[in-house]
Amino acid sequence: TAVYQSESEGSGVWLIRDHKLSFQPVTLGKPADDNKTVYILSGLAPGDCIAAAGVNKLYEGESIAEGDEVS
Question: What are the backbone angles phi and psi of residue 49, rounded to the nearest 5°?
């Protein structure tokens, strides 16, 4: 999942801007019927690039290239 749950900041995603990560709080909607899809209601703008995997291993300010894999 791309959504990360932070105890201090709540739900958010890792934005990739200028090859650096920053935590972006988001507002989540009700989960879809498949119980796998979560809708983000606010906190992102069209065209924002986010980390989609390994979000529990990322940290603020980490350098990353788009397409990098986290193991």
Answer: -105, 125
